[in-house]
Design brief:
Rossmann fold; GluRdtase_CS; Shikm_DH/Glu-tRNA_Rdtase; four-stranded antiparallel sheet; 2 domains; EC 1.2.1.70; Glutamyl-tRNA reductase
């Protein structure tokens, strides 16, 4: 909300799609890599969008921002992905104003995650906010909201047991392996892709499987070496991918590419091979299922896993929602204050104009006029008057809108209006 004349009314929206209605293929159509995110932000700047952040994960793609109409944000998304408006309309959600605010709180707190209590999304929201701020697309409202969501997320993580046990997709993949593969500690495991999900999966593999036959491959070898160094694992060149796949009993793919990186052409061995695809869009080609000895599991399959830990987490939802309500109430109170802040500011300027005019008159009339004392006294009076009006407008028993209109009418004020 910039300090300039606003000629168009904008509202805060959250638009996007998630695992709830969009399958992996559709989510892949709307997935945004780093280049696409940068291009989207540049387009937003050129379209006079005031403020927005964009997130794209394996579970969801969302834009939170200010627009006259949500289609402006939908267009930004479709212009920078493979997705179409028609596809979006079939599976999407659009929230406005306080509903959009509440939605961000639920997402950031892990209550809307594919695996309940998965807090990985909060770091992605932080990164998205930093990127928007760097592009001058993070206004006071959105920055304050992000900070409030971070606060709620921290409280939920420390004050409830909703994240008891491991709750991420990376842990779910390891849990699946341990439940479905015998003698997992003796199997050859190949992890292809060492981005965030790959790194977390690697850590869970080492921690839970006690396996010493884990090999890492990444297109950028140095990144794989950084991860391997922490756990004393083997790193192979990307050129050795096919050879390593044929040695593997378990292949975990987390490359985050926009097109499949593994297909049946790479699989020459005929021994049983379990492939877990943790990527959106899917990075393992459908044709691997034509091989009878290959079992392919996708991230969406992992989210259906239920256990006692998950049931315990569900019991914590009311506590988490109470914390959200607490922090959200604080944010909304701040938001209410912002509604009358421009009027109070305009009132103060009007009173200063009165003061300056009166001091000028008294300066001419009175000999030995003590201007310094008069300035001090009048400024104190102005501050007390504006404070009095501000306290009045904060009173829940009065109509803020009616009071604002009366103040503006009495003092003939002109000020900027901001919309949420």
């Amino acid at each position: 909300m910039k300090n300039k004349t606003i000629t168009k009314t904008t509202y805060f929206y959250a638009i996007g799609l998630s695992y709830k209605k969009a399958d992996a293929e559709i989510r892949g159509h709307f997935s945004l890599d780093d280049t696409a995110k940068t291009n989207l932000l540049k387009q937003a700047q050129n379209s006079d969008i005031e403020s927005l952040i964009v997130t794209s994960t394996c579970n969801r793609t969302e834009i939170y921002g200010f627009a006259e109409h949500p289609f402006q944000l939908i267009k930004l998304l479709c212009d920078n992905t493979k997705g179409t408006v028609e596809e979006f309309q079939k599976v999407a959600y659009i929230y406005k104003g306080k509903d959009a605010i509440y939605h961000m709180f639920r997402v950031g707190s892990g209550l809307d995650s594919q695996i309940l209590g998965d807090f990985e999304i909060i770091s992605q929201l932080k990164a998205s906010a930093r990127l928007s701020k760097k592009s001058s697309l993070l206004n006071a409202f959105l920055e304050r909201l992000i900070n409030a969501v971070i606060q709620a997320s921290k409280r939920i993580k420390t004050e409830t047991d909703i994240s008891s046990g491991a709750t991420s997709v990376s842990f779910a993949s390891v849990q699946y392996i341990m439940k479905n593969v015998e003698n997992v500690s003796n199997k050859n495991i190949l992890l292809f892709g060492t981005g965030k999900i790959g790194r977390n999966t690697c850590e869970n593999l080492v921690k839970h499987t006690k396996n010493e036959h884990i090999t890492l491959i990444n297109r950028t070898k140095t990144k794989a070496e950084e991860v391997a160094g922490k756990f004393n694992l083997i790193v192979k060149d990307h050129a050795n991918l096919q050879d390593e796949i044929n040695l593997a009993d378990i292949l975990i793919v987390a490359t985050g590419a926009q097109n499949p990186t593994v297909s049946k052409d790479l699989i020459q061995s005929e021994k049983p091979l379990l492939i877990l695809d943790l990527s959106i869009p899917k990075n393992v080609h459908e044709n691997v299922t034509e091989l009878k000895h290959v079992t392919r599991i996708h991230i969406d399959d992992l989210s259906t896993i239920t256990d006692e830990t998950l049931e315990k987490r569900k019991a914590q939802i009311p506590l988490a929602e109470a914390i959200i309500n607490d922090v959200e109430t604080e944010f909304n109170n701040w938001l209410e204050t912002r509604k009358f802040a421009p009027t109070i500011k305009a009132l103060k300027h009007k009173l200063i104009d009165f003061k300056n005019a009166e001091l000028e008159t008294q300066r001419k009339k009175l000999t030995g006029f003590n201007e310094e004392q008069a300035e001090l006294i009048s400024n104190n009076i102005i501050q007390k008057i504006t404070n009095h009006f501000a306290h009045h407008l904060k009173d829940n028993d009065i109509s803020t809108i009616e009071s604002l209109e009366l103040i503006k009418k009495v003092f003939q004020l002109e000020e900027l209006q901001e919309h949420v």
